[in-house]
Amino acid sequence: MEIRDLHVVRGRHPVLEHLDLTIGGGVTGLLGPSGCGKSTLMRCLVGVQQVRGGTIEVFGRPAGSRPLRDRVGYVTQAVSVYHDLTVAENLRFFARVIGADRAAVDRAIAAVDLQDRAGDVVGRLSGGQQSRASLAVALLGEPDLLVLDEPTVGLDPVLREDLWSLFHRLADSGVAVFVSSHVMDEAERCDRLLLMRTGRIIADGTPAEIKARAGVNDVESAFLAIVRSDAA
Ligand SMILES: Nc1ncnc2c1ncn2[C@@H]1O[C@H](COP(=O)(O)OP(=O)(O)OP(=O)(O)O)[C@@H](O)[C@H]1O
What is the residue range of the signal peptide feature (predicted)? Predict the structure, then answer.
């Protein structure tokens, strides 16, 4: 994925200013405080954000273009499955929409480890299970890129851990996973970490590299140190 000179204005304010970024395989984490532009950047990658300037290419095609429809999965912050349908009913419904077969439904449910709850109505599942059901929908088309906007928000540490393990299993199977979070302790789970602040990427590297560069032991301190040296 190649982003060049991306410029986005939302409302009256510039949100992303001349952003350049290349994203590859593995689990890439986008971390930064609320409002820094993470969702906006993700919306650009999936091609649903109006941009003022710049280019965004995914697998060599313009973001959002037709050939990418099955290749990019996107999970927004809101749970995007029907609460009054079961997990399996949701998956079968979305499979019909995108033309995926029955086997894809079973594979997606298995990938998020919801086989035991496939017959349960989504509204009666836990938050983490609901997030996994949304993720299963995104997996239906067997995407090569998964864009996940704060998928672990509001989940307890055990469920967050489960989801991160799932992201790594997906990445190991060849899916590029691009995931945002504003929880700094999740940073350690990323293969590559992008720290974002007010529409700019202020650090880019493995968690170990970023900590070493800042001379600190945790990503939160690294973030603060980088912000301070940036301001100085
Ligand atoms: N629909 C909108 N219209 C105008 N401005 C918007 C809109 N959505 C977001 N913004 C602004 O764009 C900026 C970036 O928002 P964005 O949602 O990308 O941030 P974020 O880092 O994803 O935040 P969060 O972690 O809270 O989801 C914010 O200043 C926000 O106020």
Answer: none
91-104 pLDDT, tens digit each: 999 999 988 999 99
d(CA 228, CA 223): 9
60-89 pLDDT tens trace: 999 999 989 889 999 998 878 999 999 999
36 lines ligand 1 (CB under 6 A): yes
- Cβ–ligand 1 distance for 35 under 6 Å, the answer yes
Domain-wise residue ranges, the chain: 1-71+153-232, 81-142
Q: How far apart, in whole angstroms, are the C-alpha atoms of residue 195 and residue 210?
A: 9
- Strand 145-148: give its sheet, edge to edge: 72-75, 145-148, 176-181, 27-31, 192-197, 200-205
Distance of CA 176 to the CA centre of its chain: 10
Using CA positions, which residue lies closest to atom 26 of ligand 1? 34
Type of residue found at 118: A
Asked if CATH classification 1.20.140.150 holds for the domain at 1-71+153-232, the reply, yes or no, is: no
Task: Tabulate helix, strand, coil % of the chain (nearest 5).
Answer: 40, 25, 35
Protein residue with least CA distance to atom 2, ligand 1: 10
Query: In this structure, what DSSP letter does residue 193 have?
Result: E
